[in-house]
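Two records follow; treat each independently.
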Amino acid sequence: MSSGRFRNEYGVHKPICGGRCLVAHLGWYNMSPVSVLLLICPSALWYWQVLNNIEHLYRIPLAASVGSVLLFTLYYLALAQFTEPGILPYVRLEESSRNDNIGSRLTTLVMLEGREFPLTMFRAKISRVTKNCVEHFDHFCPWVGNAVGK
């Protein structure tokens, strides 16, 4: 039994770390390893090429400041990948039309505490990539490997 907040799978998001984190298993849509390499490789190249040509007086403070910016950037990249984007439970209902010529249409509603709400109330949308209803959904970011929402 998981001890964290997440016990179920949500779309392609699966709980890890005992239910404390959700990770989207996306295959090739997840470009976060490439993002990490695009951050670390130029930084290592900078340390190797540029830092050796700087005066010794400025070398340590400059190396510490660039290193701390790199660590903060990697921390926030990991935080964006492992934090759930604001997933809302939803249900799809088939509404029948009053006009017999039109037929029925599929409606998506957010389910909270047994009540149904329209998606627009939460500015929520269904992400095609993660197959989740995300509150304040903006877009799916392949570089982070997660949906960007609340």
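The next record belongs to a different protein.
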Amino acid sequence: QQQLRQEGRQLYEEVDEHHQIREDERVRSESEVRELRKERDAARDRVDDALGELRRLRAKAEALRDIGAMPPGSALSLAGYAPPPSAADLGEQRRKNADLAVELERLQQSEAEKNARIAELEREQEMLVERIGVISSQAVLSDARDGGA
């Protein structure tokens, strides 16, 4: 009987140790998820900024095209609006737009990867919680058997 009690205590200690390990893993996983969500949010903010800049530049380009379509001497050209941009300016603007589009694509890819990692960590966390539940149930059953004996 003494040996059974000793083994029971040892099993409880092992269960407690496993529980602590699982809890540490859960906390670490939650921390990773929070960090990845922060990174995802920052990437979303950069994407939103890039999209806003792209919209602004497109609107500006459209306005410049509209102004460029005005005949010389019209009310708009006489009101102090600048002449249409030069070919070099348009080329530079196109290059900037292309760079922004590449950055936008890179940020969207990064966001997708981080979302996938978050989903993976959440699935792993759910599995760990289930495993902890099983271990806890086993400990309770073991405790009940030891108490009933």
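Discussion point: Helices lie at 2-68, 75-78, 87-148. How would you locate this feature using only the token line?
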